[in-house]
């Protein structure tokens, strides 16, 4: 068996020569010359030949097609490169892609002196075209494959070929990677015998721009002989995406009177095409302006940056003279650097002309008149102003101030938020008898400060003349409230005081009559002529109508006006306590077991409606307990409580024990209350008081009852 000769592989790609020597093949598919250099002309002339390209697929160039990286050029069937229109700047480099069903290649046209328009396709192709790839013995040499996106049927379509002049018998090619045996699977495949690489479907650069594949050779058993070697498939961008504005709504603001060239906002669009090509090189322009007054060109947009700026003089940008302070601009973004063949996208920009405070508020008249009845409060007049600024801003909203004529702070002024009027109010009742006329000086300003070249003038102040109308005012008690102090239980008919009411209408000569308005307990009477108040009943400090020892009554003073006016006065009577309430005990019922070891019966408390010193300390006693019947005992605990206890156990029954309690008043008062004591049967944790229904009397009571019965029999 002869030794294996060196394996020389070459991938015939969209822009690379077949990497074989002249002795390997008689014909080399591709361009005969790969790189051309021309000087940048003043202008490329339409349909004028620039240079001739020679391409051969070694099989007759059937169905030969050319594609140029710039849409402004084409290659005729005879290989001549011409411009489609007169054009000056096209960049530094053009690429020409030639394709037949059997081969394809790429040629590069270097324009000496050309200027960059945007990044060139050379950044995408990533490989040099000026020198052949060096051959390495028994190694696979590959270069990137370039495939335009959006290719149409038929598929599969050959895009390259691996050539092996010394390939061992029965050896095979194998292709792997994403797009082959990894997702997305099946896009590329290789003929294992011929080495032809083909694509099976349309590619989309915006989905995947570069595929990283690997090529290797294997023997008949699948064992790798050489490789894997990386193979890069680059998808060439086509202009298939329109620019879109993704950040709307676009709303900008500019202050009225802004200098020419003031930046309002920035509009930027997005293009999904390759940013290194003109396919994504955007230019902006304003398609429409609404409204088109006072100038159809109020704004300008930077074609490259998308900045919208003002282009009219500050005088035209006057919000108060504009037909509408809101402008809508239709902004267009166009790729291909704005050339006619570029795709477009539009969006609406709304620009608001914001108000500044360049107009001071002015009163609609110099003087205002108002009338108000004495004693009344509330709004008496609305002051009107005019302001040309924006009603939704602080440059329009008015703020009013009373600067003279209000020493007693009887007046206040506030702004009506809806109408911007000044609402002048009386907040302290006016008195006709003191002053029948008032004159106020009022100024108006804006919430926002005025611009430096505008100031408040004489029209920003106004005078208000106020006339006070006389009304019949009710009499006024003095003092009010009136206060007296008396002991409770004073005799009926006692004089408490004489009330005094005066008529504020000093210029009118009127008489006053008095009457009782509110007397909850019905204790009082008032003389209608002179106002003397006396009692009609006993005053009781402990009455429910008395609160904290104070009794409250109301009186009326009525003048003789037509109609009459009424005034109300309050009388507060402080009642001093006297000892007129006897104390009382609690509780009045108690229970005790007949066999109790603890002979304590109950703890009694005492209370008194009077005040100290007419209350405690209290004295507790058992009333009229005879010596033979002394089975009860009462002991003092403190000033208000005492303990009742037994001296011995009693039989099951009910007993009435008279308890006498005395307060500390001078003279003291005493109260006797029966304490009902139930002696119950207590057995096995059960208390039975039912059998104690019979009332047990003390021995003296039984003796009196016996004598009474005997007397009845003798009778």
UniProtKB/TrEMBL annotation:
<keyword id="KW-0472">Membrane</keyword>
<keyword id="KW-0336">GPI-anchor</keyword>
<keyword id="KW-0732">Signal</keyword>
<keyword id="KW-0165">Cleavage on pair of basic residues</keyword>
<dbReference type="InterPro" id="IPR014868">
    <property type="entry name" value="Cadherin_pro_dom"/>
</dbReference>
<feature type="signal peptide">
    <location>
        <begin position="1"/>
        <end position="22"/>
    </location>
</feature>
<dbReference type="GO" id="GO:0016477">
    <property type="term" value="P:cell migration"/>
</dbReference>
<comment type="subunit">
    <text>By contrast to classical cadherins, homodimerization in trans is not mediated by cadherin EC1 domain strand-swapping, but instead through a homophilic adhesive interface which joins two elongated EC1-EC2 domains through a region near their Ca2+-binding sites to form a tetrahedral, X-like shape.</text>
</comment>
<keyword id="KW-1003">Cell membrane</keyword>
<keyword id="KW-0325">Glycoprotein</keyword>
<comment type="function">
    <text>Cadherins are calcium-dependent cell adhesion proteins. They preferentially interact with themselves in a homophilic manner in connecting cells; cadherins may thus contribute to the sorting of heterogeneous cell types. May act as a negative regulator of neural cell growth.</text>
</comment>
<dbReference type="GO" id="GO:0005912">
    <property type="term" value="C:adherens junction"/>
</dbReference>
<keyword id="KW-0449">Lipoprotein</keyword>
<feature type="domain" description="Cadherin">
    <location>
        <begin position="584"/>
        <end position="702"/>
    </location>
</feature>
<dbReference type="GO" id="GO:0016342">
    <property type="term" value="C:catenin complex"/>
</dbReference>
<dbReference type="GO" id="GO:0098552">
    <property type="term" value="C:side of membrane"/>
</dbReference>
<dbReference type="GO" id="GO:0005509">
    <property type="term" value="F:calcium ion binding"/>
</dbReference>
<feature type="domain" description="Cadherin">
    <location>
        <begin position="364"/>
        <end position="477"/>
    </location>
</feature>
<dbReference type="GO" id="GO:0016339">
    <property type="term" value="P:calcium-dependent cell-cell adhesion via plasma membrane cell adhesion molecules"/>
</dbReference>
<dbReference type="GO" id="GO:0007156">
    <property type="term" value="P:homophilic cell adhesion via plasma membrane adhesion molecules"/>
</dbReference>
<keyword id="KW-0130">Cell adhesion</keyword>
<keyword id="KW-0963">Cytoplasm</keyword>
<feature type="domain" description="Cadherin">
    <location>
        <begin position="246"/>
        <end position="363"/>
    </location>
</feature>
<dbReference type="GO" id="GO:0007043">
    <property type="term" value="P:cell-cell junction assembly"/>
</dbReference>
<protein>
    <recommendedName>
        <fullName>Cadherin-13</fullName>
    </recommendedName>
</protein>
<dbReference type="GO" id="GO:0005737">
    <property type="term" value="C:cytoplasm"/>
</dbReference>
<keyword id="KW-0677">Repeat</keyword>
<dbReference type="GO" id="GO:0044331">
    <property type="term" value="P:cell-cell adhesion mediated by cadherin"/>
</dbReference>
<dbReference type="InterPro" id="IPR020894">
    <property type="entry name" value="Cadherin_CS"/>
</dbReference>
<keyword id="KW-0479">Metal-binding</keyword>
<dbReference type="GO" id="GO:0000902">
    <property type="term" value="P:cell morphogenesis"/>
</dbReference>
<feature type="domain" description="Cadherin">
    <location>
        <begin position="478"/>
        <end position="585"/>
    </location>
</feature>
<dbReference type="GO" id="GO:0045296">
    <property type="term" value="F:cadherin binding"/>
</dbReference>
<dbReference type="InterPro" id="IPR015919">
    <property type="entry name" value="Cadherin-like_sf"/>
</dbReference>
<dbReference type="InterPro" id="IPR039808">
    <property type="entry name" value="Cadherin"/>
</dbReference>
<dbReference type="Pfam" id="PF00028">
    <property type="entry name" value="Cadherin"/>
</dbReference>
<feature type="domain" description="Cadherin">
    <location>
        <begin position="147"/>
        <end position="245"/>
    </location>
</feature>
<dbReference type="Pfam" id="PF08758">
    <property type="entry name" value="Cadherin_pro"/>
</dbReference>
<dbReference type="InterPro" id="IPR002126">
    <property type="entry name" value="Cadherin-like_dom"/>
</dbReference>
<keyword id="KW-0106">Calcium</keyword>
<dbReference type="GO" id="GO:0008013">
    <property type="term" value="F:beta-catenin binding"/>
</dbReference>
<dbReference type="GO" id="GO:0034332">
    <property type="term" value="P:adherens junction organization"/>
</dbReference>
């Amino acid at each position: 068996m002869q030794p294996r000769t060196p394996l020389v592989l070459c991938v015939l790609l969209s822009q690379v020569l077949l990497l074989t020597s002249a002795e390997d093949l008689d014909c080399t598919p591709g361009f005969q010359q790969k790189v051309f250099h021309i000087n940048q002309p003043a202008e490329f002339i339409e349909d004028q030949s620039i240079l001739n390209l020679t391409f051969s697929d070694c099989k007759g160039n059937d169905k030969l097609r050319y594609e140029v990286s710039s849409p402004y050029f084409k290659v005729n069937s005879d290989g001549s490169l011409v411009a489609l229109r007169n054009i000056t700047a096209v960049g530094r480099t053009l690429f020409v892609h030639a394709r037949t069903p059997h081969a394809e290649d790429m040629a590069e046209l270097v324009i000496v002196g050309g200027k960059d328009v945007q990044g060139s396709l050379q950044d995408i192709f990533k490989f040099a075209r000026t020198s052949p790839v060096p051959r390495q013995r028994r190694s696979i040499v590959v270069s990137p494959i370039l495939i335009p996106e959006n290719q149409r049927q038929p598929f599969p379509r050959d895009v390259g070929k691996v050539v092996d002049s010394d390939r061992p018998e029965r050896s095979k090619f194998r292709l792997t990677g994403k797009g082959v045996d990894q997702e997305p699977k099946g896009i590329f495949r290789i003929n294992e015998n011929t080495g032809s690489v083909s694509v099976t479907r349309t590619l989309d650069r915006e989905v995947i721009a570069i595929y990283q594949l690997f090529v290797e050779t294997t023997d008949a058993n699948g064992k790798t002989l050489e490789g894997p070697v990386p193979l890069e498939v680059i998808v060439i961008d086509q202009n298939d995406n329109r620019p879109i504005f993704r950040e709307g709504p676009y709303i900008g603001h500019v202050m009225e009177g802004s200098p020419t060239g003031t930046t309002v906002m920035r509009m930027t669009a997005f293009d999904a095409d390759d940013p290194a090509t003109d396919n994504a090189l955007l230019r902006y322009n304003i398609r429409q302006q609404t409204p088109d007054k006072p100038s159809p060109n109020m704004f300008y947009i930077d074609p490259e940056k998308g900045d919208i700026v003002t282009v009219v003089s500050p005088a035209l940008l006057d919000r108060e003279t504009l037909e509408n302070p809101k402008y809508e601009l239709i902004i267009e973004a166009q790729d291909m650097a704005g050339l006619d063949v570029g795709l477009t996208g539009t969006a609406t920009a709304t620009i608001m002309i914001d108000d500044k405070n360049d107009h001071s508020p002015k009163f609609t008249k110099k003087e205002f008149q108002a009338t108000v009845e004495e004693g009344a409060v509330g709004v008496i007049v609305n002051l009107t102003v005019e302001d040309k600024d924006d009603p939704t801003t602080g440059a329009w909203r008015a703020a009013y101030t009373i600067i003279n004529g209000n020493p007693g702070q009887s007046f206040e002024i506030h702004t009506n938020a809806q109408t911007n009027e000044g609402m002048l109010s009386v907040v302290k009742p006016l008195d006709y008898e003191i002053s029948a006329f008032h004159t106020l000086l009022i100024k108006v300003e804006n919430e926002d400060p005025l611009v430096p070249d505008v100031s408040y003038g004489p029209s920003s102040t106004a005078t208000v003349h106020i006339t006070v109308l006389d009304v019949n005012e009710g009499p006024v008690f003095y003092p009010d409230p009136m206060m007296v102090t008396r002991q409770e239980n004073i005799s009926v008919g006692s004089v408490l005081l004489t009330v005094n009411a005066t008529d504020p209408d000093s210029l009118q000569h009127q008489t006053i009559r008095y009457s009782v308005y509110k007397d909850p307990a019905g204790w009082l009477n008032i003389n209608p002529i002179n106002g003397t108040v006396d009692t009609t009943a006993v005053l009781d400090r402990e009455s429910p109508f008395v609160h904290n020892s104070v009794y409250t009554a109301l009186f009326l003073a009525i003048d003789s006006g037509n109609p009459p006016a009424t005034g109300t006065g309050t009388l507060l009577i402080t009642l001093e306590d006297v000892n007129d309430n006897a104390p009382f005990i609690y509780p009045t019922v108690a229970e005790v077991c007949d066999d109790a070891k603890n002979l304590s019966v109950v703890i009694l408390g005492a209370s008194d409606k009077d005040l100290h010193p007419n209350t405690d300390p209290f004295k507790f006693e058992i009333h009229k307990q005879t010596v033979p019947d002394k089975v009860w005992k009462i002991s003092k605990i403190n000033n208000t409580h005492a303990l009742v206890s037994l001296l011995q156990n009693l039989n099951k029954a009910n007993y009435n024990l008279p308890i006498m309690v005395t307060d500390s008043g001078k003279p003291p008062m005493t109260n006797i209350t029966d304490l009902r004591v139930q002696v119950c049967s207590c057995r096995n944790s059960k208390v039975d008081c039912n059998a104690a229904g019979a009332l047990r009397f003390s021995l003296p009571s039984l003796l009196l009852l016996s004598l009474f019965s005997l007397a009845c029999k003798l009778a």
